[in-house]
Amino acid sequence: MCGVAGLYSNRDFAKNIVDRMLKVQWRRGPDGSSNFQQDDFYAGMVRLAINDVENGQQPFWCSERRYISFYNGEIYNSPSLRKELARDGIRFSTLSDGEVIPHLYKKFGDSFVQHLDGMFAIVLFDTWSKNLVLARDPEGEKPLYFHLSDNQKHLVFSSDLTGLMKSELVSRELNLQAMWDQPTFLWVPEPATIYKDVFAVPPGGVLVFDKDKNLVSQNVFSLNSHMQDTDDAPAPVDYQLVYDTLCDAVRSRTLSNVPVGTFLSGGLDSSIITKLTCDELGPVSTYSVGFDDIVDPYHGVADESVYAEEFARSLGCKHTTIKLTERDIRNHLDTFVLAAAEPFAVSSGLGILSVARAARDDGIKVLLSGDCADELFGGYSWYSHLERLRTKDLKGQCHDSDISLQDVGRPLDKKIEAIQNYSPQRKAWALHYYASEEEKKSLFSNDLFSAVPSSLRHFDDLKSGNDIKPIDFIRHDRRFYLRNEMLRKLDRMTMRYSVEGRVPFAARSVVRLAAKLPYSQLVTSNSLKHLLRKAFEHQLPENIIKRPKHGFNIPIDHWLKTQWADMVEDTFGPSSRLSQLGYLSRNSLTVAKQMVQNESRLNGHTIFSFIILNRFMELHNVG
Predict the structure, then answer these.
(1) Residue ranges of the chain whose pLDDT lies below 50
(2) Residue 254: how many CB atoms within 10 A of its CB?
(3) Alpha helices (H) along 166-297
(4) pLDDT value at residue 326
(5) Residue 173 burial by CB count (10 A; 0-12/13-18/19+): exposed, middle or buried?
(6) What's the pLDDT at 5?
(7) For position 51, what pLDDT does the model report?
């Protein structure tokens, strides 16, 4: 695990620029640093030593020293790749997993990413042709950002968005479209960023720039090439295959020369990962978050840490429960904002941040997580409604209503009845996202945002007029929600404390297996994640197998009505940065207060997204 940064430019003082970029992201790599320069290319890295701690320093070269690479992440199938390359006569100088990268690029060219099982952001330079390659893992676990100047005089890149801005080669102008989208999703959908002129390398992307900084090749490689297109006559259920595939995924993700621990919420997914990790390594350190006994309007009582403690004891693990109060979380909000590097209002990230801090204090550098099981195996509560929402006759669709599953004051049947009449794009929003277009129009300035396209464009692949099947909504979550929210959250929050978060459910083999599963094998009339529960019913206690999903949830709606009410005033009042720079409507404070006090609809995360956006602008002095 590392942080990378670099500059391809004839600009003077390139070393100083890259050093500034790396200094900002020292938490991604507190154990060492290195750099490389040839002609106009200058790059470097900061290292978090996980594998081959003594000798795994970057950069890595291919045998004839044509290709040089820096990378951030882990290549979990490196042992088998090393054996394959050794048969080709390759000799390795370290035991680091990343040393395979330049050799694979020499052998396979741009398609080299298809041979990697891991999480990675790769910078590769061809010292002969002077081409620069930027590549990212297919699920987007590791970040990689870039900016290409209008005159193509310089190309700057970094693992960290804040680090990239420290180059001082990029305009700090904010992206109005990103600001508009954020209250709907709680994050900025990639490849856009909060900055107008900065972009993320797409998941699975391999971008090739020539010596003149022209983008000469752009390929995107996906793991979902063999999807089940119908629920008709599905293949027989193979519970053993699911079990074996996850065992292999966890085994590969325990590759480490430093101590490994796990997140353990007490739910199904984290319990699976913890059990399989202990099967490989013996008892490990486990961590959960507990809150005061407050009713969370999303999932009931917010504290289920007692279940995690009970399961950890049964495995012989050293378990730590981090008990958080409202004051603890509030005191760490600025750290949360800085860790994300752009506006990110997913409140459960505050729990992950607290776990990472505790793990670091215990000397744990690697934490395995149960994230992504819900998207891959059908775990979200709204998935059970998808069959009812399936419609073929789309005439008479309702486009005006803002009714969604956030409307807790309406009976569930009434909500589903309303959502049935939406277009597929609007259905996708109503099932689990937040601010509607109309709500944003009442909060943002019409003068600035009137021409900004709707956030529903992100669901355009759910085409109107087609027979949209339940599995199509789940696939969209895998492409969109899983990458932009779940994987981003884990990476940014754990790396704030120099801890590497790993996700066995995002393994190449698991993703490909899940892509072939029809809806009928994921969700049944009796349970969500049916296949996963059956595959592990003999490995886990019955109370875990049957327990509903919960996770790390913060009672935002409750606190904004009470202890955090002043944040609403501070964000929407006349002295806030958002207000002073003209981004808010004149009556936004009144609207925001009404939304917070609305007992029939959960608006807490919509308002929280504005709080985070405003604080981001203040901390980074942008806008």
Answers:
(1) 225-226, 230, 392-396
(2) 18
(3) 176-185, 239-252, 268-281
(4) 87
(5) exposed
(6) 97
(7) 80
The DSSP code for 235 is P
What's the rounded Cα separation, in Å, for the pair 229 and 516? 8
- Which structure tokens are listed for 60? 């890595």
Cβ atoms of 92 and 99 closer than 8 Å: yes
Distance in angstroms (rounded) separating the CA atoms of residues 565 and 332: 17
Residue 235 and residue 498: Cα distance in Å, rounded? 43
385-398 pLDDT, tens per residue?
A: 999 887 644 444 55
Nearest alpha carbon to residue 145 among 166, 128, 116: 166
E strand spans, 150-242:
154-158, 199-200, 205-209, 215-220
Query: Pick from 457, 410, 413: which is nearest to 437 by CA?
Result: 457
Give me the residue label for tokens 């507190």: 30
Q: What residues are paired with 145 via a beta bridge?
A: 158, 200
Q: What is the pTM of this model?
A: 0.95
Whether the CA torsion 361, 20, 36, 74 is positive or negative: it is: positive
Identify the CA nearest to 397 among candidates 425, 371, 376: 425
Q: Which residues contact 608 (CB under 8 A, 6 or more apart)?
A: 186, 345, 347, 556, 560
b/e burial code for range 552-585 (CB count within 10 A of at least 16 → b): bbbbbbbbbeeebeebbeebbeeebbbbeeebbb
Neighbours of 464 (CB within 10 A): 12
* CA 545 – CA 534 distance, rounded (Å): 8
- In this structure, the chain runs to a length of 623
Q: What is the pLDDT of residues 74-100, one digit of tens each?
A: 999 999 999 999 999 999 988 899 999
Query: CA dist 592 to 251, 585, 586, 602, 615, Å?
Result: 48, 11, 12, 12, 16
pLDDT value at residue 293: 59
The rounded distance, in Å, linking the Cα atoms of 428 and 457 is 11
Rounded to whole angstroms, how far apart are CA atoms 162 and 24? 7
Task: Return d(Cα 196, Cα 173) in angstroms, integer.
Answer: 6
Residue type, 242: V
